[in-house]
Specification:
416 residues; alpha+beta; TIM Barrel; 13-stranded mixed beta sheet; globular; binds zinc ion
């Protein structure tokens, strides 16, 4: 009798597996086959303190094969009419060579450039986002995402937050502490997202700029889901110094507190340019970007993918696939001839005394895999190429990629 039941059980299970397994496989395949989109979410133009025309900047990124770009000027959206003195534009350029205006005219032609006044009163009109969109956007090929770098401060602490996919400018909200300042700005972002019924992403920028944030502060503001683990501006203290941890260490320190103590989701890591200079200066474009896996090239869908954590940051390494299933993280690196790759699986284990940001494992495979032991708060992967970064923001920089922390959801009651 028992045997019979067992046999029946096996048959039923087998049938169920036969029926449902292919479907589960199909669903997984669908997700894997979603395309990756490359974009930069932190970019400055003449609309604030960048030194080139917005159309020249957009043209640069589109030409380099980016799929999306967010122009994120300080406390302003690229809307309405804005004229700028030719002399001030010239002043922002360092060194010799053709002026920004000369290059602008050469690229787009005399008719495209709006000029008024003469001599020292000469002014050029900056193109607003809607005009940039009709010039550059192409379905499935390139889109612009409206953005602002909400640029706030508390005493000497710089609180800069990029809001992506917003529609109304958010003035800096101020606050009574670093944490309060951050919270007040994030609240405004959330309010707008709710009112407009669309996803608006907020990422905290360059936490080590003026050493503005501690890991504890980054951890405490749990409503912040994103921060810049890499920002290409050479002046943001990416590596820290003798008394301050680098951006990546801050990430682990904050995430260990969030998942371990606060039972909250960890921060996701963005990589961005924060480009300001387009005429040979050192705050140049093309150093850091994100790769986002979305259904198609659409601002809302890209934002949803970021919220899901379906993206990675890069300063040169490309991943064909990143997956986390059944407690296994698996990467597939797009190898380049003559280049080797080192993947570190980095995380923090449960328990007060655990090392923060420990290297759990290291691999030199193009398909590195890490199986969770079960005592991790979270694990993430960092891939470092043997190739030097072609335009480094710090000495000795190699090309890298950073995937998002995983393995934490069940610890905060969100399932896998
Ligand atoms: Zn900033
Ligand atoms: Zn910036």
């Amino acid at each position: 009798m028992k045997k019979y039941h067992l046999l029946l059980g096996v048959v039923v299970l087998g049938l169920a597996a036969a029926l449902f397994w292919p479907r589960a496989q199909e669903a997984k395949k669908e997700e894997d086959s979603l395309p990756w989109f490359k974009g930069n979410t932190h970019t400055h133009t003449l609309w604030s303190d960048g030194n080139d025309f917005p159309d020249m900047v957009v043209d640069w990124y589109k030409d380099k094969g980016y799929d999306f770009l967010a122009l994120s000027d300080h406390n302003i959206l690229s809307r309405g009419e804005k004229w700028m003195k030719s002399a001030s534009i010239k002043n922002r350029q360092k060194g010799d060579g053709p002026s920004a205006l000369e290059k602008y005219r050469k690229r787009f032609g005399e008719d495209w450039v709006d000029i008024r006044g003469e001599g020292s009163a000469e002014e050029i009109r900056l193109k607003p986002l809607d005009e940039l969109r009709s010039e550059f956007e192409e379905e499935g090929r390139f889109i612009l995402i409206e953005a602002e770098e909400i640029t706030d401060r508390f005493e000497r602490h710089q609180v800069h937050i990029n809001a992506l996919n917003l529609e109304e400018v958010i003035p800096p909200q101020k606050g009574t502490s670093v944490v309060d300042t951050m919270r007040n700005n994030l609240r405004k972002v959330r309010e707008q997202a709710e009112r407009l019924g669309k996803p608006i992403i907020a990422h905290l920028n360059h936490p080590n700029f003026h050493f503005s944030f501690t890991a504890e502060q980054l951890a405490e503001v749990v409503e912040e889901q994103f921060f810049e683990v890499y920002n290409g501006h050479p002046g943001i203290n990416h590596l820290g110094d003798e008394t301050h941890p680098g951006d990546e260490q801050l990430w682990d320190m904050a995430n260990a507190i969030r998942v371990g103590k606060l039972k909250s989701a960890p921060l996701y890591g963005m990589a961005t340019d924060d480009s300001h200079e387009y005429h040979g200066g050192n705050v140049s474009p093309g150093r850091g970007w994100i790769m986002v896996r979305a259904e198609r090239l659409d601002a809302d869908l890209l934002m949803r993918a970021l919220e899901r954590g379906d993206f990675y940051g890069s300063s040169g390494v490309t991943l064909v696939d990143v997956s986390f299933e059944e407690d296994i993280i698996a990467l597939e690196i797009e190898g380049q001839p003559g280049v080797s790759y080192k993947t570190q699986f980095i995380g923090t284990r449960k328990g007060e005394d655990s090392a923060v940001g420990e290297e759990f494992d290291i691999s030199e495979s193009l398909q590195p895999v890490y199986r969770l032991r079960g005592d991790e708060l979270y694990v993430r992967a960092r891939v470092t190429s043997s190739r030097d970064h072609p335009n480094p923001s710090y000495a000795g920089q190699k090309e890298q990629a950073w995937t998002q922390p995983v393995g934490w959801k069940k610890l905060i009651g969100e399932g896998q």
